[in-house]
Amino acid sequence: xxxxxxxxxxxxxxxxxxxxxxxxxxxxxxxxxxxxxxxxxxxxxxxxxxxxxxxxxxxxxxxxxxxxxxxxxxxxxxxxxxxxxxxxxxxxxxxxxxxxxxxxxxxxxxxxxxxxxxxxxxxxxxxxxxxxxxxxxxxxxxxxxxxxxxxxxxxxxxxxxxxxxxxxxxxxxxxxxxxxxxxxxxxxxxxxxxxxxxxxxxxxxxxxxxxxxxxxxxxxxxxxxxxxxxxxxxxxxxxxxxxxxxxxxxxxxxxxxxxxxxxxxxxxxxxxxxxxxxxxxxxxxxxxxxxxxxxxxxxxxxxxxxxxxxxxxxxxxxxxxxxxxxxxxxxxxxxxxxxxxxxxxxxxxxxxxxxxxxxxxxxxxxxxxxxxxxxxxxxxxxxxxxxxxxxxxxxxxxxxxxxxxxxxxxxxxxxxxxxxxxxxxxxxxxxxxxxxxxxxxxxxxxxxxxxxxxxxxxxxxxxxxxxxxxxxxxxxxxxxxxxxxxxxxxxxxxxxxxxxxxxxxxxxxxxxxxxxxxxxxxxxxxxxxxxxxxxxxxxxxxxxxxxxxxxxxxxxxxxxxxxxxxxxxxxxxxxxxxxxxxxxxxxxxxxxxxxxxxxxxxxxxxxxxxxxxxxxxxxxxxxxxxxxxxxxxxxxxxxxxxxxxxxx
Length: 648
Ligand code: ATP
Ligand code: MG
What we know:
By secondary structure, this protein is α/β, with parallel strands linked by helices. β28 (543-553) and β29 (557-566) form a beta hairpin.
C-alpha cells in the first residue's frame, strides 16, 4: 500500500510575530542552532536548569532499544523542583494556583502554601504505608487536592495513576487492577454542569468488584453528600492530614524513578497504561512549557483547561507550569455553567495571559457564536495554544480573532500521552504562524514522515509520522506489557517510533497532521485525509463541527461520509437536505470532486472520548451499517444511539 495522501486544500495565510512580541520572547533562535549542533548536549543543558540532588554525568543510554534511559546516574526530586525550589528562591508568596470551583467558590494558593500542603500529604502517604515505587490511584475532580496528591506521591518516589473523574466503576476497576494500586485517593463528589456528582460511590463500586491490592481509600470532602463508609479502609483526607507532621524533607530519587502511569484516551482502541519516569520527563515538560507558551513566570497568568486525568493535565497543568514557577488558573467545572460565558468571565477575573485548550472546545464556542466572548474583557491574553486534534484553519482564525483580539500568536501543539511533552509546535516570537499546521519539531526533537516501507517521503506527499531519535519525555513502556510496547510503536520501523498519525510537509517544510492512520480513506485509489476534508467542511459558514470517515463502497472502494453539526443560528433557515447538498458541493469545489462526500449527515452531536476527541471508528461502523463497536470510552454512551436515529 502506498502511504501517499492526496491533498489539495491549501492554507496560505501567514502571521509573523509582532516586533514587540519578538523583542520580549523567551525562546531564542539559538535554541534551534544549539540543538542542531549537539542534540544530547542541548538536552543535558535543559536538564541542568532543574535542581539535581546528585548531578548526572550520562545523558542518554540507547544501547537497548526501545528501552531508553536519560540522565540515568543523576538523582532529583520532582516535587522539590516544583515547590521547595521556588520557595527557597524567594517566590513563596507567588500564587501557584488560582482555583475556581464550579459553584463560584475560589481559593488562591501560594507556592509556600502549596509546598506546606504537599509536605503534610507526603507524611500522610508514608503513614499509610506507601513507599517508593508503590502505585496510588487518584480519582478526583479538578480541585487543588488533585495537584497536592500528585505532587505528594511524586515527593516520596511513589507512582500515581490518575483516572479521569468521569470514568465508570468498570474503567476505574480495570485501571486499579492493572497498576495494583495500594491506595485510592478520591472525593465525596465534585461539581459538573451545576450539579454535585458522586465519586466515592464509584470507587466503592469499583472496589466491590474485587481489588486485593487496595488497603485504603482517602476521601476529600468537596460536596458534602452522603457517602458509604468502610471502617478501617476509608479515611477522611482532612482529618488525617491535620494529624501528621508539617515538616518533610524531599529525598532524592534516580532520574529513571517511575513517576506515573496514565492510560491513553482510547480514541482508536483499548487504553494503554503509559509509563513515564522522572528526570527526562520533567526536563521536557518544563522546557516546552516555558518556550512554547513564552512563559514569563513573574507576570503571566497561565490557564490550561485540560483535566488532570489527561496527559495535558499532567504535563501542562501540574509538572511543566509548577517546575517553571508559573501562576495558573485551575477550574473545576464545565465551560457553560452556570452561563455560556464562564470561561471568558474567568479570564477577565484573573487576567489570564496564556490560554491552552482543545479544538473541540473552540469549535463548541464557534457554534454558540462570538457574541458570548465579546461581552468580556479578554485583553489580558497574549498567547493562545491548542492541543488534542488538528485545529481546522477556520477554528484557528476564529480563536485568534474572537478570543485573541486578532493579533496574538496561536500555537498548535502536536504530541501524545506517549511522548510526554510537546513535540511539534511553533515557538511564538520566532515562528511565522500558519493556521492549521502544527509546523515544526521543537528544538531537540528529530522526526520524519515516511512511507509504509520506512523511506522518507520526498516533497509534499503525505506519509506516516515517525520520531527518529529518543527524546527525554518518551514513554518508558506500557505498564506490565513490554511486548505490547514493542509491537505497538517499534515493530513497524525498528528503531523509529511510529506515532500512528498521518502527516505531510508543505513547500515551506511545515508539518500538517492528517489524522489517524487508521482513519485514512482510500477513494478510487486516492488516499484522502480526514483532517483536510473536515477542515473544508468547517470552513463553510454554516458548519460548527464535522467528522469524516471512509465507508466501503462498491464502485470507489471507499466513499467519503461526513457527519456535520451546524451552527446554532443556521438550523432554522434551511432543510437538512439542502444543507447537506451545499456542503457536498462546497467540498468538491474546495478540494476536488474526488473528495465530494457520498453523504453528509446533519447531526446534533458527534461521538467523543472523555477528552473530547472524535471517535471516527464508531461513525465508520454506522456508515457501513455494522453493529456499533466498543463505546466504553465515550463521554456519553447515549450519543451513538441519537446519531443513529438521526441518520436512519
Ligand atoms: P489511543 O491511543 O488509546 O487511541 P489517543 O491517541 O486519543 O488514545 P492521546 O495520547 O490523548 O490519546 O492523543 C494523542 C493523539 O491526539 C495524537 O496521536 C494525535 O492523533 C492527536 N493530536 C494531539 N494533538 C494534536 C494536534 N495538535 N494536531 C493533530 N492531532 C493531534
Ligand atoms: Mg494514541
